[in-house]
Automatic annotation (TrEMBL):
InterPro entries assigned: RNaseH-like_sf, RNaseH_sf, YprB_RNase_H-like_dom
Lineage of the species this protein comes from: unclassified sequences, metagenomes, ecological metagenomes
Residues covered by the YprB ribonuclease H-like domain: 15-187
Protein name, per record: YprB ribonuclease H-like domain-containing protein
Pfam families with a match to the protein in the record: RNase_H_2
Amino acid sequence: MAKRQQEEVISIITFDIETSNLSADFGRVLCAVVKQVGKKPIIFRGDNYAAWKKGNKYDDSMLVLDIIEELNKHDVLIAHNGMKFDRPFLNTRAYSGLSGGTGGLIVNPRSKMIDPVLIARKHLRFSYNSLARILQHFGLGSKSSVEGHMWLRALLATGKEQRQAMDEVVEHCIVDVVKLEQLVGKLRKFIPRIDEYGSK
């Protein structure tokens, strides 16, 4: 009974970030979505921040700071390719001298990360381990589709065109996070333990 009560207080979230480039020394974070299990998504978007509104779209320091602060409230983080992309990207941006960084705050290395890419590589055998491929295989439909130029428009365009592009990118991110939460339910049998010690 004590163990069950202990597990109930563990906070588990799925999250995703969208960026302007795959390399964090060149790219910037455009937006992020964090969703705690059973709750509505929390949305972070760059164009809501003061630096962006003042014309400095390349300063994502406060956006990154807010995302990391939110992630660090939780015990278990779930992100597709999160081990090799999302977490390292955020940590790299956290130390950016050009945008001021986050004052040294990084994604808590003690937070437990569940990465469906790694689960698929270890326990399954797909032609490739993209979120779209795995979702389709488990009968969860497909992830949302956004034309590649939308990420650049979200960063480089102005006015209404920029806002519409960012809206598309954010919606894409929301759908991916919701789908990811559903996918983890399907992969649960490959994750025998999710508790204060993380997963195995």
